[in-house]
């Protein structure tokens, strides 16, 4: 995927580490392994609480260590969610601001961050922005009690700790469809089993 070609595919951008540090998704120790687990927890949280159509149009942007390329590193999960690592440390903010400024339809874009500078950039281009904690609370409303307990437990999103994701996928099955096997592959890909009804962010204002 070429640089900038994917910008206009988005209608939701998350300031990754800002969201993690503002919500219960972040593990307390914050070591290298904990950061990876925390990033996975955020991706699974979104798969549980958002539709597949919304995930296809969403990206989480993170800072990254020094890379040999100036291009951001992009991965697309089975759920459709894009994980983006900026080219260098501390460049996530600049990349998010670039996406906002370069987006063909910035008024269709929602940015999730508590960073005031990024919020000002979003507002200046007519994009909506949502504080990280407010967004978390909004998405959490779509989770079952079991799923909320998993988030609160601080567990890693491994196959053994995610019965709720399997249950979420089963809830979306149509009558008469083939029963989903209880195995790690099913749990790993459960995000793409969610329905296609879009979440609405129309109740959030462009600025404070």
What does this structure look like?
The chain is α/β, with parallel strands linked by helices. The chain has a 6-stranded mixed beta sheet. The C terminus is likely disordered. Strand 5, helix 5 and strand 6 form a beta-alpha-beta unit. It is globular and about 40 Å long. 39% of the residues lie in helices and 11% in strands. It has 9 helices and 6 strands; from the N terminus they run βαααβββαβαβαααα.
Descriptive terms for the model:
208 residues; six-stranded mixed beta sheet; alpha/beta; globular; 9 helices
Helix-strand pattern: EHHHEEEHEHEHHHH
Mean of all residue-level pLDDT scores: 76
Shape: globular
Which structural class is indicated by helix and strand composition?
alpha/beta
User: Biggest β-sheet: count, sense, barrel?
Assistant: 6 strands, mixed
Strand sequence of the main sheet, in spatial order? 3-4-2-1-5-6
Give the low-confidence spans. Answer: 162-208
Q: Strand fraction band?
A: 5-15%
**What is the alpha-carbon Rg in Å?**
17 Å
Helix content: 25-40%
Count of individual beta strands: 6
Q: Ends: how far apart?
A: 35 Å
SS summary, helix count: 9
């Amino acid at each position: 995927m070429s640089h900038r070609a994917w910008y206009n595919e988005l209608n939701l951008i998350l300031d990754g580490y800002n969201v993690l540090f503002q919500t219960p998704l972040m593990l307390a120790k914050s070591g290298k392994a904990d950061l990876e687990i925390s990033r996975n927890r955020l991706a699974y949280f979104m798969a549980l609480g958002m539709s597949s159509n919304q995930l296809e149009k969403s990206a989480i942007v993170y800072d990254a260590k020094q890379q040999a390329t100036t291009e951001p590193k992009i991965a697309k999960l089975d759920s459709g969610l894009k994980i983006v690592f900026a080219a260098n440390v501390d460049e996530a903010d600049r990349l998010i601001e670039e996406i906002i400024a370069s987006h063909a339809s910035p008024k269709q874009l929602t940015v999730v961050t508590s960073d005031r500078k990024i919020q000002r950039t979003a507002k200046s281009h007519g994009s909506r922005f949502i504080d990280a904690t407010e967004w978390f609370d909004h998405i959490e409303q779509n989770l079952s009690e079991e799923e909320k307990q998993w988030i609160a437990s601080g567990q890693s999103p491994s196959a053994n700790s995610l019965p709720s994701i399997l249950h979420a996928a089963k809830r979306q099955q149509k009558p008469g469809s083939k029963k989903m096997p209880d195995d790690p592959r099913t749990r790993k890909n459960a995000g793409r089993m969610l329905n296609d009804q879009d979440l609405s962010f129309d109740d959030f204002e462009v600025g404070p």
